[in-house]
């Protein structure tokens, strides 16, 4: 190949101008790699064209544009080939570590605090429960003491009430304090009254047979020891207990006479 | 610095390489752009677009396809010509086709007095009309050889040899 003729053809000037086809460009490129004279020629043409075109520029060395371009591209002025890593030093790491520890600490403290609050609440409830139990025990003790003193009292007459008819398996006891005009009814031998019914206590005189109501036992189910204190100013000769509709009756319903007992004279 | 490794770095988005290439070619590009748009502010606007585009498209450049200078020259010429086709530009500017780069050199007093500039001014004064037109179309306007041949009503071969001779004179003037 005649290198000189190739150069003189003017193709290299068109190559620099960008006026050749893609195929021709590749051809020139390969020849440049092969022949240093061709490369040299291209370099000189290019340098001359750069000077020619630059001579037309109204502004020489326009740094302002470069800065604007860099700002637009977000270039920092450092080599951007290596993506700049934020510079973390030990202070940064220590700071982060400290804040993480602080957060864990705060979380732990809060959890502990909540746990303690719950514990206190539980203890408070338990304490209240105990106080109630103590109060109950105290009042039970007082009741028991009262009962003992009643049983020991010489002035008190015991009247056993025996089960009647269909209710022969039931029983009750009346402890009558005549001076204080009251009776203590021990009704432990009676079953719980059915729904809507109550036991009614009667004082009786025998000649003629006259019942006087001493009232109904409305709190039979809820009372623990089934001992009921009832006023009785009558000259009773016998005591009976019938089952009556809630609210009680004027006269005893004899079919539901559970227990009956006669006061022994003397 | 060797051009090949510099361009390789630029393709890997090396900022220093980008700056070096900017310094090598920016004046030339601004001359080409200014010759097309004939307005300093618009030229600077286009300049920014050109180098931003070059940065973004860096990886698309391949030395097999042509010189790096030619690559960026193409971006600049296309961006400037696009600009002249915009509505806003057409409103403010009249037909510029008649003006050649040589008019800028012959009429401007603001050009600096470096040896190159003086040499080029002398060169331009001596240039024949055909020579001026060939340089204008091939380098400043980006015509292909066929397009230039048609525009100047000259055979492609004549364009090539005439252009070669014009540039030979230019080289004698500006290169030692």
TrEMBL record, chain A:
Pfam families: RskA_C
Any one GO CC term of the record: plasma membrane
Gene Ontology MF terms: sigma factor antagonist activity
InterPro entries for this protein: Anti-sigma-K/W_factor, RskA_C
Coiled coil spans: 120-154
GO biological process: regulation of translation
Keyword flag Nucleotide-binding: no
Sorted UniProt keywords: Coiled coil
Domain Anti-sigma K factor RskA C-terminal intervals: 96-253
Protein name: Anti-sigma factor
Organism for this UniProt entry: Aestuariibaculum suncheonense
UniProtKB/TrEMBL annotation, chain B:
InterPro entries: RNA_pol_sigma-70-like, RNA_pol_sigma-70_dom, RNA_pol_sigma70_r2, RNA_pol_sigma70_r4, RNA_pol_sigma_r2, RNA_pol_sigma_r3/r4-like, WH-like_DNA-bd_sf
Domain of life: Bacteria
Pfam families the record matches: Sigma70_r2, Sigma70_r4
GO molecular function: DNA binding; sigma factor activity
GO BP term, pick one: DNA-templated transcription initiation
RNA polymerase sigma-70 region domain location: 21-88, 126-172
Keywords carried by this UniProt record: DNA-binding, Sigma factor, Transcription, Transcription regulation
Family matches, as PANTHER family: RNA POLYMERASE ECF-TYPE SIGMA FACTO, RNA POLYMERASE SIGMA FACTOR SIGZ
Family: Belongs to the sigma-70 factor family. ECF subfamily.
UniProt protein name: RNA polymerase sigma factor
């Amino acid at each position: 190949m005649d290198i000189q003729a190739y150069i003189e053809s003017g193709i290299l000037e068109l190559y620099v101008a960008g006026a050749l086809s893609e195929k021709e460009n590749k051809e020139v490129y390969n020849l440049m790699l092969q022949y240093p004279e061709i490369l040299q020629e291209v370099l000189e043409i290019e340098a001359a064209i750069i000077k020619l075109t630059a001579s037309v520029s109204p502004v020489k060395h326009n740094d302002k544009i470069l800065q604007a371009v860099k700002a637009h591209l977000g270039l920092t002025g450092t080599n951007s080939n290596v993506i700049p890593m934020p510079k973390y030093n030990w202070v940064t790491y220590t700071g982060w570590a400290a804040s993480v520890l602080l957060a864990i600490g705060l979380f732990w403290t809060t959890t502990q605090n909540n746990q303690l609050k719950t514990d206190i609440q539980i203890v408070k409830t338990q304490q209240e429960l105990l106080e109630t139990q103590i109060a109950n025990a105290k009042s039970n003790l007082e009741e028991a003491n009262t009962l003992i003193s009643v049983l020991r009292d010489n002035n008190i007459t015991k009247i056993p009430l025996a089960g009647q008819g269909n209710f022969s398996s039931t029983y009750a006891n009346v402890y009558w304090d005549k001076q204080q005009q009251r009776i203590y009814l021990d009704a432990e031998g009676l079953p719980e009254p059915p729904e809507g019914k109550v036991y009614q206590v009667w004082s009786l005189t025998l000649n003629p047979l006259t019942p006087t109501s001493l009232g109904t036992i409305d709190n039979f189910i809820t009372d623990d020891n089934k001992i009921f204190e009832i006023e009785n100013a009558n000259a009773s000769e016998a005591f009976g207990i019938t089952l009556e509709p809630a609210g009680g009756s004027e006269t005893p319903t004899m079919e539901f006479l559970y227990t009956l007992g006669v006061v022994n004279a003397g | 610095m060797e051009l090949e490794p510099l361009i390789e770095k630029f393709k890997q988005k090396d900022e220093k390489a980008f700056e070096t290439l900017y310094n090598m070619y920016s004046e030339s590009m601004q001359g080409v752009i200014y010759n097309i748009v004939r307005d300093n502010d618009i030229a600077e606007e286009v300049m920014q677009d050109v180098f931003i585009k070059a940065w973004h498209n860096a990886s698309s450049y391949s030395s097999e396809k042509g010189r790096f200078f030619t690559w960026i020259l193409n971006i600049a010429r296309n961006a400037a010509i696009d600009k002249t086709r915009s509505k806003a530009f057409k409103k403010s500017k009249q037909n510029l086709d008649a003006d050649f780069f040589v008019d800028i050199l012959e009429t401007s007093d603001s050009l600096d007095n470096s040896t190159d500039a003086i040499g080029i001014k002398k060169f331009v004064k001596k240039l024949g009309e055909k020579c001026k037109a060939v340089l204008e179309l091939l380098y400043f306007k980006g015509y292909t050889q066929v397009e230039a041949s048609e525009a100047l009503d000259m055979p492609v071969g004549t364009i090539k040899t005439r252009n070669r001779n014009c540039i030979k004179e230019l080289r004698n003037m500006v290169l030692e």
